């Protein structure tokens, strides 16, 4: 059934597309994705299987459909890479850079990584990780962090942002407001970080403030629940986005961590990842997210097109019944457009 009300407006549909960042399967542009791009899709996210062929050729085909499209990839160096998934990244990871203690080297490495991403036609590098890795049993951050000292993480995080963006690639500080003090992987369950407001500000937020001071273009909100901040995970928490905007002064695009992660399904009590994804997308947009990362279509039982259409239609329905204000959608789409303009200008497209 087609949603009633303002969602019928083609301009509204284009704004909904603008805030979505789906993945897709294969090494060429599928028909459903090409149609969505033509109708102002905001971004696409590469996974390793997408890049087994010529990455620059694929990016060229995507940008050729609509030059303003953003192409993103998780490229941290070290163990987290899409371009070098088969052999491992030639760039050192954050842990190695943090241990070396030289932010100038971190900036140089990030600039090299940025040039490689730019050559592959990638606009957004979803890095750096600026989580302070204070729990040695953390199963998902670990060596992806620059270290356990907030000041050092801040210095290296800011240097990484500067290096990556010097190459014309937008950097992403993640996972706001901090995923370092937990033994739970949000891919598998919902982490709860039991710290007070003082620790949150004096430790977790310090590297994010430094990244924002360095001009980071995007910040990723994590699926992390900090009871002292909100009962909801940060990715769907109005208080978390207000903290990011008002206290830290961030004016760029806020994106979510992958909404197909089990943390979302657990929080919403969903039976399937797709249901949790759709509910999470609506809640995140309403809370203050600007770009919704739909996750990995190579996982789960649903097709890439089904994932995209399910989320799109759920947002259209939320607009039609008023549970997501049209003004919030317009604000988010505007921030994505500003990010795309920066990437096109700095990247020379």
Describe this structure in words.
The protein has 349 residues and is of the alpha/beta class. It has a single domain, classed as Glycoside hydrolase, family 3, N-terminal domain (TIM Barrel), CATH 3.20.20. It is built from twelve helices and eight strands. The strands form two sheets. The chain has a six-stranded parallel sheet with strand order 2-3-4-5-6-7. Strands 1-8 form a two-stranded parallel ribbon. Helix 5 runs parallel beside helix 6 (150-166), helix 6 packs parallel to helix 7 and helix 9 (262-268) crosses helix 10 (273-287). The chain is globular and about 55 Å long. The termini are far apart. Its EC number is 3.2.1.52. Keywords: Glycosidase, Hydrolase. Residues 84-104 are annotated as: Disordered. This is Beta-N-acetylhexosaminidase. Residues 69-338 form the Glycoside hydrolase family 3 N-terminal domain.
What is the gist of this entry?
The chain is 45% helix and 8% strand. With 349 residues, the chain is of the alpha/beta class. The chain has a single domain (16-347), classed as TIM Barrel.
């Amino acid at each position: 059934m087609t949603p009633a009300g303002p969602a019928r407006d083609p301009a509204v549909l284009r704004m909904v597309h603008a805030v979505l960042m789906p993945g897709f399967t294969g090494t060429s542009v599928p028909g459903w994705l090409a149609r969505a791009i033509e109708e102002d899709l905001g971004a696409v996210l590469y996974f390793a299987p997408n890049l087994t062929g010529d990455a620059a050729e694929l990016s060229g085909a995507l940008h050729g459909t609509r030059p303003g499209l953003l192409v993103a990839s998780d490229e941290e160096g070290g163990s987290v890479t899409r371009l070098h998934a088969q052999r491992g990244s030639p760039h050192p990871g954050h842990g190695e850079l943090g241990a070396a203690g030289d932010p100038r080297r971190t900036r140089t490495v990030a600039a090299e990584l940025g040039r490689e991403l730019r050559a592959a036609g990638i606009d957004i590098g979803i890095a750096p990780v600026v989580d302070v890795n204070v729990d040695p049993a953390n199963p998902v951050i670990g060596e992806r962090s620059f270290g356990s000292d907030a000041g050092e993480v801040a210095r290296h995080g800011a240097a990484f942002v500067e290096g990556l963006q010097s190459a014309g690639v937008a950097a992403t500080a993640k996972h706001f407001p901090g995923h370092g003090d937990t033994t739970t992987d949000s891919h598998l369950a919902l982490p709860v970080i039991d710290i007070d407001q003082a620790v949150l500000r004096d430790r977790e937020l310090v590297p994010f403030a430094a990244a924002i001071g360095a001009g980071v273009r995007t910040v990723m909100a994590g699926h992390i629940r900090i009871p002292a901040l909100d009962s909801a995970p940060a990715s769907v928490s109005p208080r978390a986005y207000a903290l990011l905007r008002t206290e830290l002064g961030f004016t760029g695009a806020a994106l979510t961590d992958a909404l197909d992660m089990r943390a979302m399904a657990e929080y919403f009590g969903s039976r399937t990842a797709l249901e949790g994804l759709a509910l999470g997308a609506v809640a995140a947009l309403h809370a203050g997210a600007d770009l919704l990362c739909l996750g990995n279509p190579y996982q789960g039982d649903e097709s890439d097109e089904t994932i995209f259409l399910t989320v799109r239609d759920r947002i259209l329905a939320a607009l039609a019944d008023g549970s997501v204000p049209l003004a919030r959608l317009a604000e988010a789409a505007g921030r994505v457009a500003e990010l795309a303009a920066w990437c096109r200008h700095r990247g020379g497209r």
